[in-house]
Structure prediction request, 227 residues.
Amino acid sequence: SQQGEEDPQALSIQEGENATMNCSYKTSINNLQWYRQNSGRGLVHLILIRSNEREKHSGRLRVTLDTSKKSSSLLITASRAADTASYFCAPHLRGGRGGSRLTFGEGTQLTVNP
Amino acid sequence: NAGVTQTPKFQVLKTGQSMTLQCAQDMNHNSMYWYRQDPGMGLRLIYYSASEGTTDKGEVPNGYNVSRLNKREFSLRLESAAPSQTSVYFCASSERAAKNIQYFGAGTRLSVL
Prediction:
């Protein structure tokens, strides 16, 4: 079963506006990651937040994590047309045999209109 | 430094045919993964290899086999393709570190008729 569930499924904004995407998950995590996928391409890692962190910044990206609510949000500030892509959260689950595993949801399709 | 390379990029099969999807990484990563991506289903893990010599089932392993040929290469085999296996397949790799950041290939688009 999928662990990371993104909301909304689709988001359309104007260039310069901020975009906020949310993620919920179900079990304890080591960390939570956000990835981006441009149409027809593979996923690219954006940012990682550890389970003991509450907020993290990277350039125009801001990620928050609330482990009590099992939720995270990704904020992209001053969006650009080039930010148009699908965004996935990926909880890194605790435990499990062998290597660590990420789980992905269906993603949020972000469209930034010029 | 190519990262994760998948071949082929596109493939069309007839039901019952077999094929192997190839994946190679040049980052000296220990762990490798195969996912499939379908509309409305997100990415689902098929198989993974935590380290050379080990493989484990993921969420949707039925109909697939894998081989971790060496540290660099991890192949996915469809023995008897079915239309339900029409999908985009992604290979990924990561260091054997706690944070497990994954690096993805460009994908293989497979259609089974």
About this structure: The mean pLDDT of chain B is 93. The interface with chain A takes residues 4, 30-31, 35, 40-45, 48-51, 54, 56, 58-59, 90, 92, 94, 96, 98-107 of chain B (CB under 8 Å). Chain B has no helices and eleven strands.
